[in-house]
Amino acid sequence: MPCSAEQESERGWVSREVEAMIAAWERGAQVTAQDVLERFAEVDDEAAIRLIYEETCLRREAGQQLATAEVVARFPLWGAELETLFECDRLIRSPRAIALYPEVGEMLGPFLLLAELGSGNSGRTFLASDPALAHRPVVVKVIPDDQDEHLALARLRHTHIVPLFSEHKFPARGLRGLCMPFLGGTSLARILDDLAEVTFEQRTGELIVKVIDRHTGTTPGSLRGDGPFRRSLERASYVEAMTWITACLADALHYSHALGLIHMDIKPANVLITMDGQPMLLDFHLARGPILAGEPRAGRLGGTPGWMSPEQEQAMAAIVAGRPVPLAVDGRSDIFALGLLLGEAIGVLNSARNALSRQRRPGVSLGLRQILKKCLAPKAAERYDDPAALAEDLRRELNDLPLRGVRNRSARERFAKWRRRHPGGLAWGLMVLLISLASGAALATATIVYYQRVAQVQLLLDDGRSARAGGRFEEAIRALGRGLESAAAFPAPEDLRESLRGELRLAERGRQAQDLHRLADMIRSRHGIELPAEAEGQPLLRLCRTVWERKDQILAPGTFLSADSERTIRTDLVELAAIAAELRVAYAPPGAVADARKDAIRWLGEAEAGCGESFALNARRDDFAGLPEQSGTRANGVVPRSAWEHYELGRYNLRIGRLEQAALALERSLDARPQDFWPNFYHGLCSYRLRRFDDATADFRACIAIEPGSAVAHYNRALAYDALGRRDDAYRGYTKAIELAPRLAAARLNRGILCYKTGRHAEAVVDFELGLEAGPDRELSGRFHLNLALAQLGMHDKRSARLSAERAVTLGCAEAAPLLDELR
Questions:
Q1: How far apart are CA 570 and CA 573, in angstroms?
Q2: Residues 561-605: tens digit of each pLDDT
Q3: Looking at residues 245-270, what average pLDDT do you find?
């Protein structure tokens, strides 16, 4: 269709501006799309997007580091169109043609590259030494600088996921480096390749270990492992080994899915078997959140042909064709790929590789085939609901227990499992049979019933133990309670009863610890710096007292969880004791302050006796006792040593206004543990209060990388952007915070003010009215009504503006009084 003269003129205008922008960059003047857009009152969408894309290309050509997500964030009005454009750009642009990859023997930043371990679409991986740490061997994955795999990896800390040590940027090369531990070993793909010439009958777990040793021995700096994982592999059959590896990967995926990340590229090449036999998941460069059916633009999506679920393949085809995604793509897509991985490894897939073959393999039971059939169901709804359920069935198969997610169809197989669980059971049964022949049918029947009931109680014990180990304490308590009830109904063996009671004590303590941690984290997020108003604080004080009265039960001598859980329990109790002590003093009537201080000091002493010395306790005890202030680098004369002690001291200094000392203590905490959320968060607050707004945005960006679902992190980064005058970024941040926490009134207020300042008065009114519906406190309500009055005045609605201003004055907002006088 021919263009109109007006359209042709518009296109000519854009072309001239693009040419001028290119010429300016060649002269060294970095003219931006924003500079051009600000000179024109009205620009259509197509022209704006072209200008923004041209600036992006110019920055790349100049060797500047560029994250396309930041470009989208700068221009939220065209965010969806830009995401689609950049996705197409990634498909047609070869990263290797832009990024300057290093070679073995080169220094890359602080790393000396020793050997190349592998390469793929997402980058190249090197074995390197770190001269700063006694030439410790590390793995450095080098990727193009527009990839964001590090944001996914930074959030993941799991036994079966390779962790991220640090991220390094190399803008001159257009690269970033991800530093990870060197664990030796080799990929599952290489193991399967090496075993391809070995018949399935001849394969064993010991042979897998030999393949690992052969590959590890060719890598510089490798050491032979000798851990429990390796010994388990050596003793296992081949099918048992692959089943166990898959169960471990399912555990890792369950953890990743709980954080909202779907891997999207499960295949043998992305599984590392370390030199001590530990399976670990690699390569999260395609990881992303779930995709809903009908999404018109699903953003970045990738995968490896032959290793994708049907719905993932259809989604990719739809995106390429510009159509909405036909089916949801969620965690069940990873379960399909995991089924492909296990089926391929044990040789039971047909030629199409998406269903089971009829060929029988030695060691592959009917139960295992049923598990795989469920994983490979064409419809996602027919697969396991989550990887945890798959992992449980795989382990039940390994331990000869009845399966949960599929039918146990073979009576013969069930009997064989029972015999393996009870090696002497058949002999005992025969003896019972002989006795029954002599003593009569009644005794035989009673004996059989007895052993059946014992088996049922044992199964409940196994279920309870599994649920407790997975952190599902309510489920564990229910199963173990049923087990004790069943055991009480007949003379069950005493060792079985004692095992049930012991597991129940652990499960109940685990539930208490879980509830305690939720309460402590709520206190850290909402009241870490400022105490709540009395109306909110009094119920919190009563709750803390109630929990504190049960501290002896929570500490429960003789009932031990993991070492990390025990430390967390003590840390959380300290948090409760500290806030309770402060609230007790803060809300004491004027004549009872001295008694309140004594109570507070007593609580702090009890906390120290039960949980050990803490800077949080020492600092508050000094304060309540009226001791002279310390230098800000110690509490009660003690210098902090651990990352947590530096964090506690930093947070306390921040609370009492020693900002520089707080920042120093928090920096030392982050030096030791940069992956912790709270030190990053409070360092961001320090930076903001010290007016170091660029540092604050970096701190809150780290928080978002660690916990993307944290509304408070998005909100505080938006505040820092607002202070820097980056209004588009601030608007995007407030919007994200509201999406995550719709009742976060402060985000509504600040976004509304941004809209008001930029002349979008109607949008501002909507934000202020919705913010008031969230039920803010009296002071914040007054500010809402004041700004609502200003926005209504901007819309020439003087009557509504006067009513809002009157309400603001009634709520004690002094700033509203001059406006009300003017309106009257």
A1: 5
A2: 777 778 788 888 888 888 888 888 888 888 888 888 888 888 888
A3: 90
Collapsing DSSP states into helix, strand and coil, what is residue 113? Answer: strand
- 44 contact partners, CB below 8 Å, separation of at least 6: 10
Question: Which has the closest alpha carbon to 167: 144, 145, 150, 147?
Answer: 150
User: What angle, 0 to 180 degrees and rounded to 10, lies between the N-to-C axes of helices 366-375 and 387-398?
Assistant: 170
Decide: residue 553, CB within 10 A, 0-12 exposed, 13-18 middle, 19+ buried.
Answer: exposed
Parallel/antiparallel/unpaired status of strands 136-144 and 175-181: antiparallel
Nearest-angstrom CA–CA distance, 746 and 768? 10
User: Is residue 35 classed exposed, middle or buried when 0-12, 13-18 and 19+ CB atoms within 10 A define those classes?
Assistant: middle
DSSP at 250: H
Write down how long the chain is. 824
203-254: pLDDT as tens digits: 999 999 999 988 876 555 555 556 667 888 888 899 999 999 999 999 999 9
Predicted confidence (pLDDT) per residue in 350-386, tens digit: 876 677 887 778 888 888 999 999 999 999 999 999 9
Instruction: Give the whole-angstrom CA distance, residue 229 versus residue 748.
Output: 52
What are the DSSP calls for 393-426, one per residue? HHHHHHTT---SSS----HHHHHHHHHHH-TTHH
The SS3 assignment for 296 reads: coil
Cα-only R_g, the chain: 32
φ, ψ dihedrals at 276, nearest 5°: -100, 15
Q: In the chain, what is the greatest distance between 2 CA atoms, to the nearest angstrom? A: 109
Q: State residue 210's pLDDT score.
A: 92
Q: What phi-psi label fits residue 691: left (phi over 0), alpha (psi between -120 and 50 degrees) or beta?
A: left
Residues 6+ apart with CB under 8 A from 604: 577, 578, 581, 617, 620, 621, 624
Per the structure block, which two tokens stand in for 743?
């009742």
**175-181 and 107-108 strand pairing:** unpaired
Show the 3-state SS of 700-721.
HHHHHHHCCCCHHHHHHHHHHH
pTM of the model: 0.47
Q: Which two tokens stand for residue 301?
A: 């999506």
